[in-house]
Write a structure and sequence with these properties.
Elements lengths: L12 H30 L9 H13 L4 H19 L8 H19 L2 H4 L5 H16 L25 H25 L5 H16 L1 H4 L9 E9 L8 H4 L4 H18 L8 E3 L13 H14 L3 E8 L5 E9 L3 E7 L13 H4 L20 E4 L2 E7 L6 H9 L4 E6 L11 H17 L2 E6 L5 E3 L5 E4 L6 E9 L5 H5 L2 H26 L1
Parallel strand pairs: 1-2, 2-3, 7-8, 8-9
Antiparallel strand pairs: 1-12, 3-4, 4-5, 6-7, 9-10, 10-11
Helix pairs in contact: 1-2, 1-3, 2-7, 3-4, 6-7, 6-17, 7-8, 7-15, 11-12
Length: 524
C-alpha cells in the first residue's frame, strides 16, 4: 500500500515581505508629503525662506506621482496639515478650535484636490500638467468653501524672490504657475530614471532661469500719467492685554487714532512733516457708527479738520435689519463723512456666522451678536491727484477684488487691517504674510500700496514691491511718505482672470480625458 506524501504549505514569508515593503513605501511617501508641507510653510513669513516654495511642492509631487487617487488624497492631506497648522498658528489667539478647524478643512480640501493629480502626472511633459493642476487647485480653494481662503498661495511666498516681476505679466496665478513648474521639474529630476535625468535637469535649469531673470527679461513698468502725493498712515495702537470681550466694547482704539492724528497735525504745523494729501486710519479704528454718535462724530471731525486733509476711517457702519458694514469711510475737513467702501469678502465665524442658530451660542462666537453685510462693488475715493481704492484686511488676497479696483481707475491702493486679535501672543505671522501679499499686489498692478494696521505692521510699498516705510509692532506710529501715483495698467490687469481660467481648463481637460480613456479601456 502506497502512502501519499503531504505537500508542504508554501511559505508565507514572501507575501508578508511584499506587504511590509508596500507599507514602508507608503510610509516613506507620507513622510515626503508632510515634509513638503513644512517646507512650503517655511517659504512664507515669518520664516520667509522663499526658495522652499520650490522644495515643498516638489516633495508632494514626488510622493503623489505613480500613486492612486486614494493614496494621493492621503498625501495631499498630510501636506495640507503640515503646512496650514503651523502657518495659521496666529489663529490660536482666538482659541484652538478656530485654528485647528480651519487648518483641517483646508488640509482635507487639498487632499481632495490632490486625489485628481495622479492621472495628470502620468502624461508627458508632466511638469506642465502639474503646474496647471496647482493653479486650478489654488483657484478652487480661493473660492470654496464659504467664499474660499486664498491665503498661502505659492505666489504670496515670492515677495523677496527675483521672480516677483512675473506677477505683472500673468498675475498671482501666473507667478504660482511659474513656482509650481519649477517645483515639478525638481521633482522630475529627483524621480527620473538614469537615462532621463539630463532632460529633467535641463528643464529645471530653464524654469529656474526664467524666474531668476525676470528683472532682465521683463520690460520696465510703464509710468504713463505719473504724479505723486504725500500720504500719512496713522497707527494708533491697541492695548495688547485686551481680551476678545474687551475688544468688542472699548473705544480706546478710536481715541488713540484721534490723538495720533493730532500729533501729526502738530508736526505739520511745526514743519517736521509735510502736509499730507491723504491720511489713512486702519480697519475698525472705530467700532461704532460715528454718524449716529454725536460725541464720536465731533471728536473725529475735529481731528480731521486739525490735520487739514481727508481721512479714510476704518468704521463699522449701521445697516438695515440690525446688521452692520465693515467699511472704509472717507471723512473730509469741509464736508465730514461721505463716500464709503464696504468689505466684500467677509470672514466666516468672524464677521458673520453661518448657520447662526447652530453655532451662534458657542463661546467667543457670542461676541458676534449680529452679522456684517458684504459690500457689492468697488469704491474709488478721489481727492486731489489721488484716486484711492480700498481692500479691507484679508480680502487683499482675492485677485478679482484688487483687479476691479485698478480697472475702476484707482492710482493708489490701500489695505486697512485690524490684526491685533492675531498678535496677542507675540505672533508675527499674520502681519508678515499680509505685507507680503500687499507687495505682490503692488507689482502685479503697478501701483503704490499703503497698509494701515491698528498695531502693525503698517507700511508704504512702491510699485516695484519695495517697502519705503514700515512701523514696528504694538506701537503708536505715523508714517508720512511721498508715493508715486500711476495710471498705466499691466499685462496682468489687461488679461484679468484668463490666465487662471486657462490653466484650470487645461487641468480639468486633462483629468476628463484621462477618465474617458480609462472608461473606454475597461469597455474594450
Amino acid at each position: 500500500m502506497t502512502t501519499a506524501t503531504a505537500t508542504p504549505a508554501r511559505p508565507a514569508a514572501p507575501a508578508a515581505g511584499a506587504r511590509r515593503l508596500r507599507l514602508v513605501r507608503r510610509a516613506r511617501r507620507d513622510v515626503l508629503a508632510a515634509l513638503g508641507g513644512l517646507a512650503t510653510c517655511a517659504a512664507f513669513p515669518p520664516v520667509n525662506a522663499w526658495p522652499l516654495a520650490l522644495a515643498g511642492p516638489a516633495l508632494l509631487l514626488a510622493a503623489v506621482r505613480g500613486s492612486r487617487s486614494a493614496a494621493a488624497f492621503r498625501y495631499g492631506t498630510w501636506y495640507g496639515l503640515a503646512m496650514f497648522v503651523p502657518l495659521l498658528s496666529w489663529l490660536g489667539n482666538l482659541g484652538p478650535l478656530p485654528w485647528l478647524a480651519l487648518s483641517a478643512v483646508e488640509a482635507l480640501l487639498w487632499g481632495v484636490l490632490t486625489a485628481a493629480a495622479p492621472v495628470l502626472l502620468r502624461w508627458r511633459p508632466w511638469p506642465l500638467w502639474a503646474a496647471a493642476w496647482w493653479v486650478a487647485a489654488e483657484a478652487v480653494r480661493s473660492r470654496a468653501p464659504l467664499g474660499g481662503f486664498p491665503w498661502a498661495r505659492l505666489a504670496f511666498s515670492q515677495a523677496d524672490s527675483p521672480a516677483l516681476g512675473w506677477a505683472s505679466v500673468l498675475g498671482a496665478p501666473g507667478l504660482s504657475a511659474l513656482v509650481a513648474l519649477g517645483a515639478a521639474c525638481l521633482a522630475a529630476l529627483c524621480t527620473a530614471r538614469t537615462g532621463r535625468r539630463t532632460a529633467a535637469a535641463f528643464a529645471l535649469a530653464a524654469a529656474l532661469a526664467t524666474g531668476a531673470l525676470g528683472s532682465v527679461l521683463l520690460p520696465a513698468p510703464a509710468r504713463k500719467g505719473d504724479s505723486s502725493a504725500t500720504v500719512a498712515v496713522v497707527q494708533g495702537n491697541v492695548p495688547r492685554e485686551r481680551t476678545l470681550a474687551e475688544q468688542s466694547r472699548l473705544r480706546q482704539v478710536t481715541d488713540n487714532h484721534i490723538r495720533a492724528t493730532g500729533d501729526l497735525a502738530a508736526a505739520v504745523r511745526a514743519g517736521r512733516n509735510p502736509a499730507p494729501d491723504l491720511v489713512l486710519w486702519p480697519e475698525n479704528s472705530t467700532d461704532t457708527d460715528p454718524r449716529a454718535d454725536p460725541a464720536l462724530f465731533t471728536a473725529i471731525d475735529n481731528a480731521v479738520k486739525d490735520v487739514g486733509a481727508p481721512v479714510l476711517v476704518g468704521a463699522v457702519l449701521d445697516g438695515p435689519d440690525g446688521r452692520i458694514y465693515n467699511t472704509g469711510l472717507m471723512w473730509r475737513p469741509d464736508s465730514g463723512p461721505g463716500q464709503w467702501y464696504a468689505k466684500q469678502h467677509l470672514v466666516p465665524f468672524g464677521e458673520y456666522i453661518p448657520l447662526r442658530e447652530v453655532f451662534g451660542g458657542l463661546k467667543d462666537l457670542q461676541l458676534i451678536p449680529r452679522d456684517f453685510i458684504p459690500g457689492t462693488g468697488t469704491t474709488v475715493f478721489r481727492t486731489g491727484p489721488v484716486a484711492l481704492a480700498d481692500s479691507i484686511c484679508y480680502e487683499v488676497g482675492y485677485d478679482s477684488q484688487v483687479r476691479d479696483a485698478v480697472r475702476s481707475g484707482a492710482n493708489l491702493l490701500a489695505v486697512q487691517s485690524n490684526n491685533a486679535t492675531y498678535m496677542r501672543d507675540g505672533s508675527r505671522g499674520e502681519p508678515g504674510q499680509q505685507i507680503a501679499i500687499a507687495r505682490i499686489r503692488a507689482v502685479e498692478h503697478n501701483r503704490s500700496v499703503v497698509v494701515a494696521a491698528t498695531t502693525g505692521t503698517s507700511a508704504v510699498i512702491t510699485p516695484d514691491g519695495r517697502i519705503t516705510a514700515r512701523s514696528a509692532l504694538w506701537t503708536s506710529d505715523t508714517l508720512v511718505e511721498q508715493v508715486p501715483l500711476r495710471t498705466a495698467t499691466t499685462l496682468a490687469d489687461r488679461l484679468g482672470p484668463w490666465p487662471e481660467a486657462a490653466a484650470s481648463l487645461l487641468a480639468v481637460t486633462g483629468i476628463a480625458s484621462a477618465a474617458t480613456r480609462r472608461i473606454l479601456t475597461r469597455k474594450r
